[in-house]
Write a structure and sequence with these properties.
About 30% of the residues lie in helices and about 25% in strands. The chain contains four helices and six strands. The longest helix is centred in the last third of the chain and has 17 residues. The protein is globular.
Amino acid sequence: MAYDENTAARVRKLLADQRHVAEKKMMGGLCFMVDNAMCCTVSGRGGMLIRVGPDAHARMLQEPHASPMEMRGRIMTGFVRVAPEGYQSDAELKKWVKRALDFVGAMPAKTGGRKAAPRKAASAQSSGAEGAKALPRGRVQKGPRR
């Protein structure tokens, strides 16, 4: 199912002066990522998905043309689905995109990811034995035969 190219072009225009914007085809539409965080999506099912965060979720559902985002039978708190009638004017679209940008801008910066602990340190911590020799991966230490 194709997303609305006209709406995607309008969103691109609104995000033109933002840094680190990327587009990814996902969730049946075109997702706009800002600083590696999902911001909003022009949905292939019609309308848009707007990331507002869990704290603002209930409040945003009170807005005209907004409804919960459901994925695989689960309500995704923090996202709302906005029907096309909710962003017909440029001012309405700008309002929704700004809400998503405000939430994404308030998120803590993402780091490069967690690094795994060195294998020897991890095995000594998990076994609780001080000075225990780490075995190669996949090897099991055998006890004395009886």
